[in-house]
Design a protein that fits this description.
alpha/beta, single chain, D-Maltodextrin-Binding Protein, domain 2, 3 domains, transcription, two-stranded antiparallel sheet, about 325 residues, DNA-binding transcription factor activity, Arc Repressor Mutant, subunit A, 10-stranded mixed beta sheet
């Protein structure tokens, strides 16, 4: 079975190729010339090729050696840059976070002033990105993700629950009330605004309420909740969305539940994701503690808001149906 070259052999080879002489490479590596020659010999035997042409006291690369040298310098350059980046990151008070875009803009960003005020000596970087972090290739401390896709080998910690219900502008709701006699009739007539990446979709909500709509009915679809929410504010339809992302608008009355009696579904939605080893960093521990405190405050505020608006909350989607046969 073939074996890959050792890292030590590649280091010796790269130094000889760059310096052109074994003696210079030995001096650079602080080893004996015979040790360098032995490593080059072992590497050539392993690969089954000659890496150098030996002309008098000078060495020059063969075609195969040139190809290997280019690959080696590229790989060592990547390793060097990564080492420097990691070293600078560890030596500084820098916290790097990646967050789903709508959550970053509508929930996290307004609260960060409190965190910054409590930790003024820290450098904080927040990347709003729909793509999860690759912790093996990227320098990221922690990620805040939406949903429950498989994340094997990573530490996951629930942070914020979502409360999902149909939401629209007061004017849009009032116009529907004038022409509809029940929430069911409203659901049949509304213009749907879809947040296409949301866990709860309109098809699921309508099915649970046994509402059938014409497939030709126009719908608006957006891949960012922020955009879908803005269209509801503009009064063009009803969005099935999160009170986590619309709390300020619901509190101010800019948005309202389409029909409070339909209730809201609650489920764990946002979670902290990171390698377990990152949990040992003080900066990560402090940030997680802070965001959990913010999440608790947020949970209390949402519960009070929905209670004030007479919106019942259902933890289990199977229980979610005010349209039971007894109540029709």
């Amino acid at each position: 079975m073939s074996r890959d070259p050792s890292l030590n052999g590649m280091i010796y080879f790269e130094s000889v190729a760059r310096n052109g002489r074994v003696a210079r490479a030995a001096e650079e590596l602080n080893v004996s010339p015979s040790a360098v020659s032995q490593q080059i010999k072992l590497l050539e035997e392993l690969l089954g090729i000659s890496l150098f042409r030996r002309e008098k006291r000078q060495l020059s690369l063969t075609a195969e050696g040139e190809q290997l040298y280019l690959a080696a310098t590229s790989a060592f350059g990547i390793l060097h840059n990564a080492r420097q980046l990691i070293s600078r990151h560890r030596e500084s008070h820098q916290l790097i976070i990646r967050v789903t875009p709508s959550f970053a803009i509508r929930w996290l960003s307004p609260k960060l002033a409190d965190f910054i005020q409590k930790n003024p000596e820290w450098d904080l970087r927040v990347d709003a990105s729909p793509d999860p972090s690759n912790f093996e290739r990227e320098v990221v401390d922690l990620d805040i993700r939406y949903g429950h896709s498989s994340l094997a080998g990573l530490h996951c910690e629930e942070v914020v629950s979502d409360y999902i219900l149909p939401i629209c502008s007061p004017a849009y709701r009032d116009e529907l009330r004038r022409s509809c006699s029940s929430p069911l009739e409203m659901l049949q007539k509304i213009r749907l605004i879809d947040s296409v990446k949301a866990v709860m979709q309109w098809d699921n909500w309508l099915a649970r309420h046994r509402v059938t709509r014409n497939n030709k009915d126009a719908a608006l679809r957006f891949d960012r909740s922020s955009m879908a929410i803005q269209q509801a504010i503009n009064g063009v339809g009803v969005v099935l969305e999160s009170t986590t992302l619309t709390y300020d608008e619901l509190r101010s009355g800019m948005l309202v539940p389409l029909a409070p009696e339909m209730g809201a579904i609650r489920f764990p939605a946002y979670r902290i994701v990171c390698p377990s080893r990152h949990r040992s960093r003080k900066l990560v521990q402090v940030f997680i503690g802070w965001i959990l405190q913010q999440a608790e405050i947020h949970e209390n505020n949402i519960s009070a808001l929905l209670s004030d608006k007479n919106v019942p909350v259902y933890d289990d989607p199977e229980v979610f149906s005010y349209l039971s046969d007894e109540k029709r």
